[in-house]
Specification:
The structure is a single chain. By secondary structure, the chain is α/β, with parallel strands linked by helices. The protein folds into 2 domains: 263 residues, Aspartate Aminotransferase, domain 2; 100 residues, Aspartate Aminotransferase, domain 1. It has 10 helices and 14 strands. The longest helix is centred in the last third of the chain and has 21 residues. The two termini are 35 Å apart. It binds 4'-deoxy-4'-aminopyridoxal-5'-phosphate. One of its GO terms (cellular component) is cytoplasm.
Length: 383
């Protein structure tokens, strides 16, 4: 076991100790096998059970309708950037015979990277909104975004929580979909299962596991079934749409129940243990309630000292997962990190691209631990 850690890193992030204890037992020997879960065949009954059980738990937690399919891909969020672009272009081509130009809402570092990947792949993406001029400190109201044409827009992409900038959508931008005619694609890598969502509103959701729900190596996808058609290579070549590498080709992966090639089954098993733990602790409703309380507590104490703490993000777009702030005064931020470290509060340094302080309070950080941090912040402010 280990002492309770007050670790606020942005990801990979803290996981419940009980989950890791079970995972470490299963890594040595799993069920009736003479070997551990990382050593069994990905075609074995036990491995298939892990995949099916994980999918079932996700469906239960998120109330996923029959219209949608869950699958897993190796890799992380970045794998999603490329695979979303090529797969969804192909599915748009299957429906319309056209290439189209996907639209991106750029609200921070990660949606910007995803947009850039679509451009790098030659898709000439549209910009639905771009917050770069205001340094990604808020989200423009959806009615001020570019008006999109469903005839030529294969999907509208956004990042539900921008991990670096601390910017989160408090409601998904469904108004941008032209009454659902344009599939809504969401990167939920850093707030997946932190709150209730209505899956039926989405064409595709993807999330790297390593923040709220597991360890790095696996990415969860939830896709509307009509968006996974098989499209011939010849047709894609004709339309100048990049061919998706086979390991990331959604129709192939779905057809093979996420085990077209060797799925990292230990990583899926850890994900499944996290899901079981979430269900045993009251599911998404309880988790969301606690996340709201944690964020209120932390923002509350920071807002109380505006001369010292500067919170750049507009209140209606503040992230409940990544609380980003700077501290006024020469050397104050270094002092903050150092003093926090002395109280065993770690992982608080801001992302290298933006500096400042970032406290990531993902699902595994409980209210008590956030309480410890806020107490330290109070002391720091009154010193
Ligand atoms: N999207 C978001 C919202 C992220 O926070 C990150 C990583 N922090 C990524 C995508 C990229 O994920 P990965 O490093 O797993 O490729």
């Amino acid at each position: 076991t280990r002492p309770k850690a007050a670790y606020f890193g942005a990801g990979p992030a803290l996981l419940p100790t009980s989950v890791l204890q079970q995972a470490s037992i299963d890594l040595i020997t799993y069920l009736s096998n003479p070997v551990g879960v990382g050593e069994i065949s990905h075609r074995s009954k036990d491995a298939i059970n892990i995949i099916d059980s994980t999918k079932a738990h996700l469906s239960e937690i998120l109330n996923i309708p029959d219209t949608h399919e869950v699958f897993f891909l190796q890799g992380g969020g970045t794998t999603g950037f490329s695979s979303v672009a090529t797969n969804l272009l192909a599915s748009f081509a299957a429906k319309t015979g056209k290439k189209g130009q996907p639209a991106y809402a750029i609200t921070g570092t990660w949606s910007k990277k995803s947009y850039e990947e679509a451009a790098r792949l030659g898709l000439e993406p549209q910009v639905a909104t771009n917050g770069i001029n205001s340094k990604f400190t808020g989200i423009a109201p959806v009615d001020q975004w570019k008006k999109l044409d469903p005839e030529t827009t294969p999907y509208i992409y956004y990042c539900d929580n921008e991990t670096v900038n601390g910017v989160e959508f408090h409601a998904p931008p469904v108004e941008a979909t032209c009454d659902g005619k344009i599939p809504l694609v969401s990167d939920m890598s850093s707030n997946f299962l932190s709150k209730k969502i209505d899956v039926s509103k989405f064409g595709l959701i993807f999330a790297g596991a390593q923040k709220n729900v597991g360890i790095a190596g696996i990415t969860i996808y939830i896709i509307r079934k009509d968006l996974i058609p098989q499209v011939g290579t010849e047709e894609l070549n004709k339309l100048n749409i990049p061919i998706t590498p086979i390991a990331f080709h959604y129709p192939t992966v779905v057809k093979n129940n996420s085990a077209y090639n060797t799925i990292p089954i230990f990583t899926v098993h850890v994900l499944n243990l996290v899901l079981k733990n979430l269900l045993a602790n009251g599911g998404l409703a309880a988790q969301e309630k606690e996340n709201v309380e944690k964020a209120q507590l932390l923002y509350g104490v920071l807002d109380k000292h505006p001369q010292l703490f500067n919170l750049p993000v507009a209140k209606d777009s503040r992230s409940k997962m990544n609380v980003v702030f700077t501290i006024n005064g020469e050397g104050k931020e270094e002092e903050f990190v150092k003093k926090a470290g002395e109280q065993e509060l770690s992982g608080l340094k801001g992302h290298r691209s933006v500096g400042g302080i970032r406290a990531s309070i993902y699902n595994a950080i409980d209210l008590e631990t956030v309480g410890k941090l806020t107490k330290f912040i109070e002391e720091f402010a009154s010193a």
